[in-house]
Structure formats: C-alpha cells, structure tokens
Amino acid sequence: VNLVKYINKQFPNFFAKMLSSNKFKKLQLVKYCFISFEYNEHSEINLMNIDRILTNYVNTNLDFIEYENIKNLEKVVASFKTLDVCFEFIDSNNPNNELFDYIYNLNMYQINETNVKYLIKYKLQESINSYLVQFCSHVYSDKGIPLFDYLKEEINKSMECYLSFYSGQIKDDEPTIIWVLNHSDINSDEKEKYIDQATTRISDISIIEDKSLLTSIIKKFLMEYSAKNIANYYFECNLTAELVQFINSDSQILDFSEIDNISNFANDCITENKLNDIKYDQFSKQIFEVQKQFNIEDLSANKIEILLNNNIIPMNKSNLMFFRLHY
User: Fold this and answer.
1) What pTM does this model have?
2) What does 254-320 look like in DSSP terms, one character per residue?
C-alpha cells in the first residue's frame, strides 16, 4: 500500500506506463487502481489521470464493478467522482452490491440499451418487455426511482436510446404522451419517432404546443375523432389532404354546434371533392351556408345533388345561369 502511495505521488504517470507496457495482468492493474483510490489524495488521483487514461480504463471495465476486496468504499466512490467515472456497461453477473448501489444511485453509467434493460431486470426486478411498452409512463410518473430520475434528467438522450432499440407499439397513457410531445428538451426527430409508435389517442390536440407535430399526429390517427380536434387542426394547418382523410375515416356524425368561427372550414369543405359523400351530406346539413350565388366549379355530380337536396343551392336566376355555363 505504502509503495503504491509513494509511486503515485512521485511518478503520477506510472499507471499510464503500466497500462502501455503489457507486462501487467488485468487483475494487477485493477488492484493497483483500487489501492490508489483508497489511499491516495484526490489531487494525486487527478495527476494520475493523464488524458483521462484512468477514467477511460475504469469506464470500460466491469472488474471495477465486481471488485470485492475494498477496504474503504467511501474513498473509492469519492475517487470515482473525482475521475468523473461513467461506466460504459454495468451488466455484471457478479457485482459488488454495495459498490454497485453507489454507481446506480449516483448515475455513474451511460444511458444505453444494455444498461437500461439490465437495471429494469436487476434493480427493479421487472419484465423488460412490459416496461418498454410503457417506458415513458414509468419515466414520467415513477418518482424516487434512481433509474427514472436519471432518465428524466437526460430526457433527450433517454428518448434517443429508447427509440433506437425499441420498435414495438408504445402504449403510454395520454398525460405521458402530452408530456413527451410538449417537452422542450426532446428534439423533434425523437418526437416524430415516438408518434409513429404510439397508440393512445389524444383527446384534445390544442394542448400540443409544437404545432409542427400535428400533421404526424393526424397521419397516425393519434387524435380522437371529434369536431373539436378537427377544427383545432384546421385552424393551425388548413384543410390538408391528411385532414380530409381523417374526416373520411369514421362514420361518426360530428357536432360542430359549439365550435366558433367555423365558416372558413365550411367554405373549404364545400369545395372539397375528396370528402366522401356521407361526410359531405352531414356537413351540408350542419355547417354549409346557403349559396345564393353559387360559384364552385368541378364539383362531382353526387355533391351537387347533395347540395340541392339539402337546399344549399337555391334555384335563383344567378345560380341557374352558373349551372348552364359550368355544368
């Protein structure tokens, strides 16, 4: 012990030479490190860490998680902090449990697929598959669990990691979906990937702050089919092909009676040939205004018939002349 202390004080580059010499076995190197961690001062540990050689060696070796012959655990942990240790992988079959608890609680590991799955199984004693289906719900709601607190602190990195290896259906609850999509620290690419895999419908899309996501949401039918959502989407994005497809997707009768400022939506819908005839008939009975001066060209015969049957087009002189010219 005293020899190691002395060497590190007098020759801080000695460990680097040990590592590059290839004359020492791995167990010898690890033991040397632990003696250094336990008996040398933090300033001396820092001097040994030339070009982060000591940090990198620890980060990439499970031996530092499994080492059992520790005399001063608190000093070892303090040295890990000094070195800014962050293990690449922690999936040990035989960890030193006391040391591992410190590593886990102090977030001394990288966020990656291997580590996240290992901690769900090893620390939380849960099924990996069932957790991944509602992964963000756990991150959002499971307060006090170090894994999820860490993932929440590094939320964009966590989402990148999660969506890089999980390609199944995401069944998070609605509050979680809103939390993810409105989170300012999650980038748009990850939100788009998340939308593509999510299955829970959003009851009110006006809550979504990033309006650029609305097209992806409607393409995935990730919003509830309601007049309110359709109107809110229209107010942000107009009558897009995606909105027309969404309107056509359900036979449910929509009630726009409580929606304000619906006239522009109605005016766009009355000219839209791609609305199916069932929806067109419903809208003509609810929101279309009487066309005293009808001037819409190229409407399908079915839609003209619907407008006539529902008295949207009165047969006055102006309309009769328009029909003679264009129909």
Assistant:
1) 0.90
2) P--TT-SS-HHHHHHHHT-TTS-HHHHHHHHHHTPPP-TT----S--HHHHHHHHHTTSS---HHHH
